[in-house]
Design brief:
Elements: E1 2-11, H1 12-15, H2 35-47, E2 71-73, H3 76-90, H4 103-117, E3 122-128, E4 132-141
Antiparallel strand pairs: 1-2, 1-4, 3-4
Helix pairs in contact: 3-4
């Protein structure tokens, strides 16, 4: 078992595009569906696997390209420390002053370690200045508890 880290930051309106944050339904719409629905299905089928947008389900990061992985760690503590470093590096840009509190970081790492140690995934998000958004995820891999059939992105050909 190991853990992959993902980081995304961008405009809040792009993050809000939920259609591109979930995989397409496994069955296409019936052939007699409205052309707009068929076109939208094709767009989501093509875009979701390659879009850098954070997926709605954390485990679906494993479907995305390996190039989006920001780090891989065998030990939960190392992954949790990466997350804490990312949060600390963006803290000055957090829109909410309460989120900037450094005391929050002190309690962040132990909780993240505990979650990853039993095979869980974790996502954290923060509003930044200029309606932007920061998304951080740690995904347990090989296997993932929520989606055990998903392959490790670093092991795909």
């Amino acid at each position: 078992m190991h853990h992959h880290g993902y980081l995304w930051t961008g405009p809040k309106h792009r993050f809000d595009n939920e259609a591109l944050r979930r995989p397409a339904h496994p069955l296409p719409p019936p052939g007699d569906s409205k052309p707009e629905l068929i076109q939208r299905y094709r767009e989501v089928t093509a875009e979701f696997p390659v879009a850098d947008l954070p997926p709605l389900e954390i485990a679906h990061w494993l479907i995305k390209p390996a190039a989006l992985v920001r780090g891989t760690w065998a030990e939960p503590r190392d992954a949790a420390e990466w997350l804490a470093e990312c949060v600390a590096s963006y803290a000055g840009r957090f829109a909410a002053p309460a989120e900037r509190d450094q005391g929050r970081l002190a309690v962040l790492v132990p909780g993240v370690v505990a979650r990853l140690a039993w095979g869980g995934d974790l996502a954290r998000g923060f509003y930044l200045e200029r309606p932007s958004y920061l998304h951080l995820s740690l995904v347990t891999c090989s296997p993932n508890r929520a989606a055990p059939r998903l392959d490790c992105p670093l092991r795909r050909p």
